[in-house]
């Protein structure tokens, strides 16, 4: 499983059903890459995609029971690993880091990569 796939599962695990665009906004990957990620997760039986009955352009994505069971199994270890990594920081430093990462994430979401800025 790659980082984009795990990030997608993690977003769905914590937020519940999301549209494809909401996942893109949370995981910060390109729309074209998201299609590949969702195809892989669907093939593995971890998610479902259903068309919005009112707007056929919108897909709702959610964990399958198998996807939820998978995350129930692996997420506690991931969380423990992250706590271990972050344990060198004080609580205040952890809160500052979280705030700074949110700011960077929002900025990165709005950044457009072009030939001129590479």
Q: Can you describe this structure?
A:
The protein is mainly α. It has a single domain, classed as Arc Repressor Mutant, subunit A (Orthogonal Bundle). Helices cover 64% and strands 10% of the residues. It is built from five helices and three strands; from the N terminus they run αβααββαα. It has helices at 3-15, 20-27, 31-43, 65-86, 91-110, and strands at 18-19, 47-51, 59-63. The protein has a three-stranded antiparallel β-sheet with strand order 1-3-2. α1 (3-15) crosses α2 (20-27). The longest helix is centred in the middle third of the chain and has 22 residues, at 65-86. The radius of gyration is 16 Å and the shape is globular. The model has no long low-confidence stretch (mean pLDDT 90).
What's the helix and strand layout?
Blueprint: H1 3-15, E1 18-19, H2 20-27, H3 31-43, E2 47-51, E3 59-63, H4 65-86, H5 91-110
Antiparallel strand pairs: 1-3, 2-3
């Amino acid at each position: 499983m790659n980082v984009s796939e795990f990030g997608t599962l993690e977003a769905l695990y914590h937020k519940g059903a999301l549209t494809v665009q909401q996942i893109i906004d949370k995981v910060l990957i390109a729309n074209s890459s998201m299609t590949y990620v969702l195809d892989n997760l669907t093939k593995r039986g971890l998610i479902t995609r259903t068309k919005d009955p009112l707007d056929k352009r919108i897909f709702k994505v959610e964990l399958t029971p198998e996807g939820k069971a998978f995350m129930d199994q692996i997420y506690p270890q991931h969380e423990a690993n992250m706590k271990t990594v972050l344990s060198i920081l004080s609580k205040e430093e952890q809160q500052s880091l979280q705030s700074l990462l949110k700011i960077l994430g929002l900025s990165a979401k709005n950044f457009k990569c072009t030939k001129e800025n590479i």
